[in-house]
């Protein structure tokens, strides 16, 4: 475990109340589809590791007070190198992850600051998240209790049976592709995770666990650039997105 945070809690004012937001960054996956001996979080996009981009986005979001980084035991030293090399100050702890993503989030949840009121959970392999989108979910979670960033689907979605025959065409106007961060009031997320662990419930994301408890989750429209690095092709796409951003930034100077 790593305790490196130096900044004191000042809190974020949302709706007249002070909020303390802890971000849990999950970087404990093996990334088998990447066909690389190295964990995908530490592969380079142009000039720095995937995880460095992710951590910098949360570092640059003023509404985030601390970052809990969850990773594999064998990757802790690499994480510390990134923290030092990029002078990241909000990482308060590095926690060893569990067998599945859900286990890793649960372990991170146990390590948040005692002052925490809002928790934002994000995949370490989503390096292109905009700080303003992170803040938007924090503000929404403060107001509504739960929020997630996502984008409307572009394709027509078909429901198929076990033999791959089309059963139904879903209403695209109501379909969104959910991303991360997924952000919640801490008491809601803790309650959902405690219930899941006690009842051996498995889910592919945090929203599913919260949905099962009967809570509504506000969807916040984010960016199609917020891709998850899963295959080698995703690295190439991320490089193109970053190069495009740099061109825009230079044009604005």
Characteristic key phrases:
253 residues; 13 strands; disordered N terminus; two-stranded antiparallel ribbon; alpha/beta; single chain; seven-stranded mixed β-sheet; globular
Walk me through this protein's architecture.
The protein is α/β, with parallel strands linked by helices and 253 residues long. The protein has a single domain (12-252), classed as Spore Coat Polysaccharide Biosynthesis Protein SpsA, Chain A (Alpha-Beta Complex). The chain has helices at residues 50-59, 76-85, 101-109, 131-144, 186-199, 206-211, 232-252, and strands spanning 12-14, 17-19, 21-27, 44-45, 48-49, 66-71, 91-96, 118-123, 146-152, 158-160, 166-169, 176-185, 218-221. It has a seven-stranded mixed β-sheet, with helices on both faces. It has a two-stranded antiparallel sheet with strand order 1-2. A two-stranded antiparallel sheet has the order 4-5. Helix 2 links the parallel strand 6 (66-71) and strand 7 (91-96). The longest helix is centred in the last third of the chain and has 21 residues, at 232-252. It is globular. The model is unreliable at 3-10 (pLDDT under 50).
Q: Tally the helices: what do you get? A: 7
β-strand percent reads 15-25%
| Helical coverage, percent range | 25-40%
The CATH class is identified as Alpha Beta
Oligomer: single chain
- Please give the domain count: 1
Which outline best applies? Answer: globular
């Amino acid at each position: 475990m790593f305790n490196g945070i130096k900044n004191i809690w000042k809190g974020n004012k949302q709706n007249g109340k002070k909020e303390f937001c802890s971000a849990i960054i999950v970087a404990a996956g093996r990334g088998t589809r990447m066909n690389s001996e190295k964990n995908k979080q530490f592969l380079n996009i142009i000039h720095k590791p995937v995880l460095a981009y992710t951590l910098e986005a949360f570092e640059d979001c003023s509404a985030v007070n601390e970052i809990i980084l969850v990773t594999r035991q064998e990757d802790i030293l690499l994480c510390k190198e990134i923290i030092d090399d990029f002078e990241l100050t909000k990482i308060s702890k590095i926690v060893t992850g569990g067998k599945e993503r859900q286990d890793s989030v649960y372990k991170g949840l146990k390590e948040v600051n005692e002052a925490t009121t809002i928790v934002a959970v994000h995949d370490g392999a989503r390096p292109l998240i905009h700080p303003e989108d992170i803040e938007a979910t924090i503000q929404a979670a403060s107001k509504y209790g739960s929020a997630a960033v996502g984008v409307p689907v572009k394709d027509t979605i078909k429901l198929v049976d076990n033999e791959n025959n089309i059963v139904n065409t879903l209403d695209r106007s109501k379909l969104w592709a959910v991303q991360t961060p997924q952000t919640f009031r801490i008491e809601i997320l803790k309650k959902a995770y405690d219930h899941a662990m006690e009842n051996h419930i498995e889910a592919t994301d945090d929203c599913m666990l919260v949905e099962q408890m009967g809570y509504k989750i506000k969807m916040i429209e984010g960016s199609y650039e917020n891709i998850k690095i899963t295959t080698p092709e995703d690295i190439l796409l991320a490089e193109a997105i970053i190069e495009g951003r740099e061109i825009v930034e230079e044009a604005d100077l």
